[in-house]
Amino acid sequence: MLDRPVAAAQVFDADLSAIRALAGVVPGPLPVALNAVKFAASIRPQKFVIEDGDETPVTMPRTAYQVVYPDGTVMIDAGMDRATHESFGQGEPYDDDAFAQILRALRAARVIVLTHYHADHAGGIVTAEDADALAAKTIASAETLSLMMNQPHRSHLKLSEPLAERFVCLSYGRYFPVAPGMVLIKAPGHSPDMQMIYLRLQSGVEYLHSIDVAWNLANIRHVKGKAAPWVKEDGAAVIAQLRWLNRLMRDEPGLHILVTHDGELLDRMIGTGAVGGSLKV
Questions:
Q1: CATH architecture of the domain with range 16-271
Q2: Residue-wise over 156-194: b if at least 16 C-beta within 10 A, else e?
Q3: What is the per-residue pLDDT for 1?
Q4: pLDDT at residue 2 tops 60
Q5: What is the separation of C-alpha 147 from the centre of its chain, rounded to a whole number of angstroms?
Q6: Rg (CA), the chain
Q7: Which of 63, 64, 89, 172 lies at a 20 to 30 A Cα distance from 114?
Q8: According to the model, what pLDDT value does residue 89 have?
Q9: pTM of the model as a whole
């Protein structure tokens, strides 16, 4: 009897040196700070957050980030309103004041960048009273807009064609320098349209925002994926990205790796001053 062939492991081979070079392509002063705010949270047993986890509850915040330039700000993702948050389950933490801060920051931003179509990243724009104005300065990939129109994460977030046409639609290869010091990195896996973000400040401090490749830094540290049965993602692609991030942790100790839903990691970053704990509005 012949052995079945073993599928080759996927490889994610983003080139950090090329990404660093692209961070200097867009003219203008580099950013001076990175801020973040938690506006809600989901609480799940660790066994859903990481493979081989136990019943220990893990609080996973929902966050939005803000890049501060000398002459304005860029928002990374847009959060989501309370009604959308509660569509995932009643009774979990939600901070109305923090989301109001996000809305003010979105309105004040020169540019908004969506990393992917999931509700906690894109919902804040779609449900806003001034969605037309926000969309007009929001950069979203063609894949993200297609998913928001045809396969929305929540039915009430379905983009109408007129609203979709307001967005700044972006198509690119592997990397795209979207602003001074800021580079988008295609990373489909958690969702078909997901992108990571590299950021370099004037001070030389560097960040790699892994968005939702991991839910917790432990996913990266141990190269173990999520284990939530409701999460539908390309597991092989995610593991390849976790391997890449794990190598960066080992080989680039000065690079700050961010994870959207790791509250303890964000608290440490805020505690050391690497990330500001409120948004500039």
A1: 4-Layer Sandwich (3.60)
A2: ebebeeebbebbbebeeeebbbbbbbbbbbbbbbbbbbb
A3: 41
A4: no
A5: 16
A6: 18
A7: 89
A8: 85
A9: 0.95
User: Helices marked H in the chain — which ranges?
Assistant: 16-22, 46-49, 82-86, 96-108, 119-126, 131-135, 142-150, 161-164, 217-222, 235-251, 263-272
Residue 271: CB atoms within 10 A of its CB come to 10
Domain boundaries, the chain: 16-271
Q: Is 255 left (phi over 0), alpha (psi -120 to 50) or beta?
A: beta
Q: Which of 74, 49, 50, 77 is nearest to 63 (CA)?
A: 77
Strands (E), 168-231: 168-170, 175-179, 182-186, 195-200, 206-209
Element of type H or E holding 62:
strand 57-69
Going by C-beta distance under 8 Å and a sequence separation of 6 or more, which residues neighbour residue 268? none
Q: How far is CA 31 from the centre of its chain?
A: 18
The tokens describing 183, both together, are: 């580079």
CA of residue 45 relative to chain centroid, distance: 22
Task: Go through the chain and tell me how many residues it has.
Answer: 281
> 109: closest CA among 152, 168, 41, 164?
168
Structure tokens of 135? 């969309």
Task: Please say whether the beta carbons of 207 and 182 come within 8 A.
Answer: no
d(CA 108, CA 72): 8
Per-residue pLDDT tens digits for 38-53: 999 999 999 999 999 9
